[in-house]
Amino acid sequence: MKRLTVPAIQRRKAGGITAEPLVMLTAYTARQAQLLDEHCDILLVGDSLAQVIYGLPSTLPVTLDMMIAHGAAVVRGSYHSLVVVDMPFGSYEESPQQAFASAARIMAETGCAAVKLEGGTAMAETIAFLTRRGIPVMAHIGLTPQAVNALGGYGARGRSQEEHAKIISDGKAVAEAGAFSVVVEGVIEPIAIALTQSLEIPVIGIGASAQCDGQVLVAEDMLGMFDRVPRFVKRYADMAALVSEAAATYAQEVRSRAFPGAEQTYQPK
Ligand code: KIV
Ligand code: NA
């Protein structure tokens, strides 16, 4: 199987409608990528690794080096999905030139095919700058976690007329700037539907609408690794319970000297 390309993802919305929704999940490690790859169209190396892997309180402390290390691991662990790597907070907002330098490092050092950055109208110039220089960009609008301090929290966006209009104009701006796709996160459903119907690029929803052109979730959230997850997460497994039960059984067998058994020990010939 050949790896999906940016144009192949874009062609999925040919004629303005995505017949088969795009499947996207996060992956941060090679093994996770191996397990998810065949089921997905896009693997996102999200800066959500801040909370999921590093126990950080927000995505703001994530560095370019962290994203590159995990991005390279995910590219090595996959061969089918398009790999998109998040640009971390502080690595792209200052200028299109700063964004290009950061994105070029991400692309060159990981082998990924595209980067993702947060922001709408304010980032349009940067998106155009990168796109014209051969770096495909996925935009991220609506609830943008890197702006948590400005937004005042992680609540759903778009309930006021003003916010509603801003999210719609952000979507138009990133599409016109050349983004190949856009993630819309945590918005009231009518906004997600309007964006999906009005933009020619695939609109990928998270906490958005089943009518979007695709869906993304943090893999650990949908695998049930966490007790507390946002309302928009559906848990498809209970990994936390599996891990906890396995550790409990192991601990009990170590303490009772039942492990290691005959099958796990070496004897002289
Ligand atoms: O970092 C991340 O995991 C993301 C997705 C949730 C869209 O940006
Ligand atoms: Na992110």
From TrEMBL:
Keyword Acyltransferase in annotation: no
Chain's gene name: panB
Protein name per Swiss-Prot or TrEMBL: 3-methyl-2-oxobutanoate hydroxymethyltransferase
Chief location: cytoplasm
Described function: Catalyzes the reversible reaction in which hydroxymethyl group from 5,10-methylenetetrahydrofolate is transferred onto alpha-ketoisovalerate to form ketopantoate.
Pathway named in the protein's UniProt entry: Cofactor biosynthesis; (R)-pantothenate biosynthesis; (R)-pantoate from 3-methyl-2-oxobutanoate: step 1/2
Subunit and partners: Homodecamer; pentamer of dimers.
Pfam family, one: Pantoate_transf
Annotated cofactor note: Binds 1 Mg(2+) ion per subunit.
Protein's cellular compartments: Cytoplasm
Family named by the database record: Belongs to the PanB family.
Enzyme class: transferase
Keyword annotations: Cytoplasm, Magnesium, Metal-binding, Pantothenate biosynthesis, Transferase
Keyword Transport: no
Species this chain originates from: Novosphingobium clariflavum
Active site: E185
Binding of Mg(2+), residues: D47, D86, E118
Residues reported in the UniProt entry to bind 3-methyl-2-oxobutanoate: D47, S48, D86, K116
Catalytic reaction annotation: (6R)-5,10-methylene-5,6,7,8-tetrahydrofolate + 3-methyl-2-oxobutanoate + H2O = 2-dehydropantoate + (6S)-5,6,7,8-tetrahydrofolate
EC number from the UniProt entry: 2.1.2.11
Cofactor(s) in the UniProt record: Mg(2+)
Domain of life of the source: Bacteria
GO MF annotation: an example: 3-methyl-2-oxobutanoate hydroxymethyltransferase activity
